[in-house]
Design goal:
Layout (H helix, E strand, L loop, with lengths): L1 H6 L8 H31 L6 H23 L11 H10 L12 H12 L1 H15 L6
Helix pairs in contact: 2-3, 2-4, 4-5
């Protein structure tokens, strides 16, 4: 993503400070927000039959809620994390999408709306259709 963002206008701001913040959000998405989300997937998929599963699941969810609460507070009522859309938002939306089916994202209406805005972007739709075409073998619809 960083490689692509550096080469395509609109994904990283021109201003050096705003650019640094966008890059920081990319790393935050992958290194701060995503790990407990992946832990939830791993716990549900691989540890469901373990005797400690029922005790572990709330702990994992609390770690996610801690991260989502902080992110929700930072986003507030803004459309994007740092003013205008950037690669940081793209990465964060991709990470948060992993939670959509769990219902946990619904606990934070501003984050749900944020993800919906990200998914509604025409470039997102084109990229998603192209990726789906690779996996299904069918050409993109748009």
């Amino acid at each position: 993503m960083f490689h692509i963002a550096e080469r395509h206008a609109g994904l990283l701001p021109d201003d050096a400070n705003a650019r640094a913040r966008a890059i920081t959000w990319m790393f935050a998405a992958l290194n701060t927000v995503e790990p407990p989300i992946l832990d939830l997937s791993t716990t549900r998929l691989l540890e469901r039959d373990k005797p400690w599963y029922e005790q572990r699941l709330p702990v994992v969810k609390d770690r996610i809620r801690d991260r989502l609460g902080k992110l929700s507070g930072r986003l507030g009522d803004a459309d994007w994390l740092d003013g205008t859309f950037s690669a940081g938002d793209l990465m964060m939306v991709a990470v948060l999408l992993r939670l959509k089916a769990s219902g946990m994202l619904d606990e934070y209406p501003n984050l749900s709306a944020y993800v919906a805005r990200g998914e509604a972007r025409p470039a997102y739709k084109r990229a998603f259709d192209a990726q789906l075409a690779v996996f299904t073998g069918k050409p993109p619809t748009g």
